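I am still getting used to backbone structure tokens and would like to learn alongside you. Label the sequence line and the structure token line clearly, so we can match residues to local backbone shapes. Go ahead whenever you are ready, and we will take it from there:
>
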Amino acid sequence: MRIPRLARPSRRSTLLAVAATLGLSATAVALPAVAGAASHHPIRPTIVLEHGAFADAASWDGVVKRLQRAGYRVVSAANPLRGPATDAAYLRSVVDHIDGPVVLVGHSYGGTVISQAAAGLEGKVKALVYIAAFLPETGESSLGLTNKFPGSTLGQAIESVNYTLPDGGRGADVYIKPEKFRGQFAADVPADKAGLMAAGQRPIAAAALEEKSTKAAWKTIPSWSLVTTEDLNIPVAAQRYMSARAGARTTTVDASHAVTVSRPEVVTRVVEQAARTVR
């Protein structure tokens, strides 16, 4: 008679039997991983948000709330708005103090800043997201790109305030006139909210808009872009031109320049598209 061959007990079943003998639960025993059971999940990067001119970090509040709810760590950085080189150096110092991968998101002039700040940080900054933003090439300025295509009415809405520093240095800051702020910057934002934004707007140094970029990180880091078709600050044609040139994955929305406030759900969706590619 042929005796059937007994199956050799697995290491896992042996460990479970020993655990039962000792009166231990299975969870008290460190069991070996089962081959093929492990899965590769995307890493949750830190999302760093950089605001632009005539706004502040609070302009990201609706986006921050949604990203945090989705489980992301978010840093809404303060932008000095003094010039691409200065502002990029400051943003880079913020990124340097973050552990793990980062997704940089820039609104408006903030796009110029993240393009310069991320250069050389390809190992850490995994994606760039441009929200109604500039994607300048080396040697281009924000003002030059604005004027490259028709459609911006910003020049008629701003006023300049001159200042003198204690060391004798002189300069000029640019604001949007409060009475023109909503129509120019935030036409699809409720009037009371737009009034608060106008009162709390951060001025940008006039020289910052003319300072030429020295780096273009979108050449080496994957990029995403949200184009706003009702934008009176950066012409939609300019946004499309820059996005196409960079090879950015582009989404279009009918919104004003203040899209981070008026359409935070759309902005969040684009940011998450970029974040989900980080592994």
Summary: Residues 1-39 have pLDDT under 50 and may be disordered. The chain has one domain: 46-275. DSSP finds eleven helices and nine strands in the chain. Strands lie at 46-50, 74-77, 102-107, 125-131, 158-164, 170-176, 204-205, 223-228, 249-253.
